[in-house]
Amino acid sequence: MLRYSLKRLLSLAISLIIASLVIFLVIEVAPGDPASFMLGMNAQEDTLNALREELGLNQSKLERYLSWTFGMLQGDFGTSYTYRTPVAQMVADRLWVSLPLALYALALSTLIAFPAGIYAASRRGAPGDVAVMGATQLGVAIPNFWFAMMLVLVFAINLRWFSAGGFPGWDEGLFTGLKALTLPAIALALPQAAILARVMRSSLLDILNEDFIRTARAKGLSRRQALWRHALRNALIPVLTIIGLQFSFLLAGSIIIEQVFYLPGLGRLVFQSISQRDLIVVESVVMLLVFAVIMVNFIVDLAYAFVDPRLRSRS
Amino acid sequence: MRSRNLIIGGVLSALFIAAALISFLWTPFDVTQMNIPAKLQTPNGTHWLGTDHFGRDIFSMIMVGARTSIAVALVAVGIGMGVGVPLGLAAAARQGSLLDEVIMRGNDLVFAFPSLVIAILITAVFGPGAVNAIIAIGIFNIPVFARLTRGAALPLWQREFIMAARVAGKGVSRISLEHILPNVTNLLIVQGTIQFSLGILAEAGLSYVGLGAQPPLPSWGRMLADAQTMVNFAPHLALIPGGAIILTVLGLNLMGDGLRDLLDPRIRVERT
Predict the structure, then answer these.
(1) Model confidence at A313, in pLDDT bands (50, 70, 90)?
(2) pLDDT at A315
(3) By the 8 A CB rule, do A197 and A119 touch?
(4) Does the pLDDT of residue A117 top 90, yes or no?
(5) Most buried among A13, A59, A158, B50, by the most CB within 10 A?
(6) What does each C-alpha distance from B270 to A188, B59, B155 come to in angstroms?
(7) Does the distance separating the beta carbons of B109 and A248 come in below 8 Å?
(8) Which residues of A fall within a CB distance of 8 Å from B247?
């Protein structure tokens, strides 16, 4: 296990280094001079020079890359050109919206998908199974931002149960904060729940065909007892992997959903930064998102190896 | 049941592909033509799906929007297949080699960049546009096809007919092309359909946040973005493009499921 973990850790480090290199090259090298890109075509030469000095553009590319990455390792993401505040602080503030939103959506998606998947698998071929599978087909096809607009129309504009957008902040209390995130989380969770329910169902059906389930049935357990006592635990392994992978998609997906609900999260920060040409912020937020995806994949790999000894020995 | 999926999916997909193709020759109204006195009409005899806030005909916009969505998703699948499949074939042919390791780790790396993140990166540098959406979705498709091809090709290399081809003196790349590729084509078609539908969703999402197709080019995602502030008094502005996206994606997914059932011999055996 230790050898496997070390090998994965090395590959994690390499992935992070290459990802940071790719982001750095795309943002800082491709468009020419970042200072004139940020300030626009009509900028004065002395203003450009001042910005170049401030951004460290007079250094070599290697020096800039190293100072960017080592800065990040110490929690220093640079200073936003537009807002004149440390990027780390801005990102941390926005994460307090985006991260709870992603976690809330993940919880909702699991809460919907598990019962739906188990129900469908336990009634394979019956009308209940067909109905659940039909609903998941639809769930996968619905764009989450469109669903979000429909939720606003019904629950915020017509029924007035929730606000149509905005976030009052966690200072107003946990309940108020969660209430503001409820519609966005439902919109974000829907397609993921549909995918997860399908994975849950097919994973359970695979397990239900295994010999040990037949043995359990032969010993006198009903199909339902065999499902709950033996199949479910085994079927969870692929499901947990998918949940892990979905988290990164939820974090990226929250970028779009935040636009619908005007939530002050990472998504709004990155779009504002794009329109204000604040490349330092874009660079850091993109790196953070990629870091999150790579980390989650790493943890899923480790968790998978932990529960499945065959993977460890293969390494 | 299974062929029903294929038929319903095929009909839905064909409908939108036909709408996209016909829009090259004819649309009921010019999509760039504003007609303010006729703005925000609900569906009626003249404007079958109503008009938007500029009085543009929504039916015509849906037709041209289908063109944008389908073109972006189709080219993105083409990029994914064109690059991913050769990489997957090469990785499988030299399993365990440095080349295999580099290709698969490279794939892992690209997987870490969701298409939205790639689009953000490209847009921050080059500005928004449909071409950037194609590149972003296309890059994300590469590892999908590379992994699928490699995974499907690996067991084939152990089969007798491949050994026979090797004994006959065929090289690795010729075997990959002449024997491995035809045997993974079914899988690629099914995955292609799925990626096509995901591409349409991704394009809509990117256009919605302003990273994809730009005005005046109509796109379903942009139509939804425009509809957002008017949804309370003109819900048809959101319902119609949303419905178009859902029906197209649903159609392609059903078609993918139907094709898988039809093309996968294991499922065929199960059925009999």
Answers:
(1) low
(2) 44
(3) no
(4) yes
(5) B50
(6) 36, 44, 21
(7) no
(8) 141
B23-44: average pLDDT: 87
Q: Reduced to 3 states, what is the DSSP secondary structure of residue A146? A: helix
Inter-axis angle of helices A174-208 and A127-141, nearest 10: 130
Q: Do B117 and A253 touch (CB under 8 A)?
A: no
Strand partners, A79: A86
Q: Is the pLDDT of residue B31 over 60?
A: yes
pLDDT tens-place string over residues A275-300: 777 888 888 888 988 898 888 888 87
Positive or negative torsion for Cα B27, B33, B36, B39: positive
DSSP chain B: -HHHHHHHHHHHHHHHHHHHHHHHH--SS-TT---GGGTTPPS-SSSTT-B-TT--BHHHHHHHHHHHHHHHHHHHHHHHHHHHHHHHHHHHHTTTSHHHHHHHHHHHHHHTS-HHHHHHHHHHHH---HHHHHHHHHHHHHHHHHHHHHHHHHHHTTSHHHHHHHHTT--HHHHIIIIIHHHHHHHHHHHHHHHHHHHHHHHHHHHHTTSS--TTS--HHHHHHHHGGGTTT-THHHHHHHHHHHHHHHHHHHHHHHHHHHH-HHHHHHH-
Query: Which residue in this structure is represented by tokens 């490699």?
Result: B150
Cross-strand pairs, B142:
none
Residue with tokens 């598990």: A114
Query: Which DSSP string corresponds to A40-99?
Result: -TT--HHHHHHHHHHHTTTS-HHHHHHHHHHHHHTT---B-TTT-SBHHHHHHHHHHHHH
Q: Report how far Cα A34 is from the mean position of its chain's Cα atoms.
A: 29
Q: SS3 for A125? A: coil
Given a cut of 80, whether residue A144 has pLDDT beyond it is yes
Cross-chain Cβ contact B235/A271 below 8 Å: no
Count CA atoms closer than 13 A to A253's CA, side-chain side: 28
- Whether the pLDDT of residue A32 is over 70: the answer is no
Nearest to A279 among B124, B205, B235 (CB): B124
Select from B116, B206, B104 the least CA-distant residue to B153: B104
Cα–Cα distance measured from residue A146 to residue A190, given in angstroms and rounded to the nearest whole number = 11
* Nearest C-alpha in B relative to A285: B117
Kindly write down the DSSP assignment for every residue of A147-183, as one continuous string. HHHHHIIIIIIIS-SS-SS----GGG-HHHHHHHHHH
Q: Which residues of B touch A271 (CB under 8 A)?
A: 209-210
CB–CB contact A293 B112 (8 Å):
yes
- Which of A140, A271, A293 has the CB atom closest to B114's CB atom? A293
Query: CB distance B197–A26 less than 8 Å?
Result: no
> In 3D, which of A250, A239, A150 has the Cα closest to residue A192?
A250
Mark yes or no for CB contact B238/A149 under 8 Å.
Answer: yes
For an interface test with B, which of A146, A241, A251, A283 has the most B Cβ atoms less than 10 Å from its Cβ? Answer: A146
Q: SS3 sequence, A174-194?
A: HHHHHHHHHHHHHHHHHHHHH
pLDDT of residue B128: 83
> Average pLDDT, stretch A184-213?
90
Report the C-alpha gap between A130 and B197 in whole angstroms: 22
